[in-house]
Fold each of these.
Amino acid sequence: MKWTEMSIHTTQDAVEPVSNILHEAGASGVVIEDPFELQKERAGLFGEIYQLDPGDYPEEGVIVKAYLPVTSFLAETVEEVKNAIENLLQFNIDIGTNEVTLSEVNEEDWATAWKTYYHPVKISEHFTIVPTWEDYTPVSEEEQIIELDPGMAFGTGTHPTTVLCIQALEHHVKKGDVVFDVGTGSGVLSIAAAKLGASDVRAFDLDAVAVTTAIENVKLNNVHDKVSVAEQNLLEGIEGHADVIVANLLAEILILFPEKAFDTVRAGGTFISSGIIRQKKELVKSELQRVGFIIEETLVMEDWVALIAKKPE
């Protein structure tokens, strides 16, 4: 299959809305090349990123890339994306140079080109994410490894929203728990839940590519006896109940199913929601409280927020 890489040179302020526009246009995910990553100080042991190459980043501004399948509708999709980005000016959002470039890539090239950005990362007290093509030796007996090949599911496990979810899972998943992972992507959260002792983990994603990738990663980490993966739109039609539900999604998607999440989690259970940009925290928080959840904790990393909500006993 042929794919088109759509690259937009924009500003830090516009990264989130431009990313949303690309998601709505059919991109499964985006790649963000932000030179700020080169100077960022990272406190503590977790979230450290190795071997960043300045040559991979623009000298100023931010590059947002997405991959769209080459179809007969591609030209219309590209024009819609361009128009939507231009419309951001109406909301006083600085879009910078807004230079848009297109290039064609083969599926094989796309699936491997990003690997230069991805190295072992210790993300929490227990877990280190290790790409399958890297050699890594644990530094302690307590350290757990999650081997991951994100493929084309855009889930490397090192984004702040994923790190927040895994750190929350460490504190809330108990041995024998049932866990639902909504929007599983590469399957990293489901794998972590299984390694933390959950006995039954159900992973859902609407993207067929993500489902295939998650299944492969679950097998790679030898938790296929505990984790099942299915193509599914959020929690629609899902039967049964979970002790913990985790959803790493955009705020706009999280607010689509708070009632279903409340009904699905057991009394006393936990709903972990992440993928929330700081400015959207109150929106998601108010929707969760509206349906009866109690917000127990708010986790923050960089500009991202995770909410830990409990269903009353």
Note: The two ends are 51 Å apart (CA to CA).
Amino acid sequence: MSKAKALLDLMMYINAKRHFTAKEVADEFNISIRTAHRYLMDLSEMGVPLYTEPGRGGGYRILNNRMLPPIILDEDEAFAIFFAFQSLRYYPSMPFDINMNSVSRKLYASLPADAQNKVDRLGSVLAFWTHKTSTPSPFLKEIIEAATENRILEMVYASKADNTVREIVPLGLYAYNGFWYMPAFDPDAHETRLFRADRIVSLKVTQDIAVPPVNLPSWLDNQTAQAPKNPVRLYVELTREGIRQCRSQPWLEPYIVTTDEEYGYVETGIDQSELEFVSSYFFQLGTSAKVLEPREIADRIGIMAKELYHHYL
């Protein structure tokens, strides 16, 4: 076995063991203890974070910031990872201390010259754009770790009227349109609520544990499949421009029906609590949409139009 192959196998071994002795390494790879020490020193010089523990029962320990062994990627796999990082550029906070620029530089440097040129060309014509926010979310790592252990968090949350103190169990985090969102189970209210991570003023991880009734993937699936609690029929006539605008809205796009090249309609159900939001959306479409049902939305849009008219008199 070549020395390079031996060092790669040893790196994988110590990443799995984390705590070991030179004798264990020697026995595992059928080498002398002296050679084991030399190989471990070689890995340390390569940047593997090894710590020596002297005395009886000592040995070697790999630190928490473990270095992963080399991974061989084909060109398309490298491109996929490189551009996946681009989709996170607009998030000011990340759940862990991820230095995307450092990872991208390492990945880019490992590519051959022709592949680097291809990345440069693709970078000028391909982007994953989302709304860029300047408000940080400093507690993402604590939320993720608490979610994996079902820990109860004590948090101060900036609500619409005032800061409130809450005890919750986070399901996890998801990113949407430049923001991080935390669905969390409220043990006192026995319900799952949604919070914006950047609105958390302070956070304390407790030793108390509570198991949420649902996990994050199931909760997200329920949000798209959940029927309205207080359903209201929504029927809206659309012009060609109205169809184009509504197709960019995930909550409307599946329910658009085109009658010809110039007209169509939306027919679906919404919750009673969403009337104000839906009114505001179709108000900004102007004459590209006409709400026929429910009457409450049509009336609300009429009031908003009058208020806007008088505002500019």
Note: Residues 295-311 form the longest helix (17 residues).
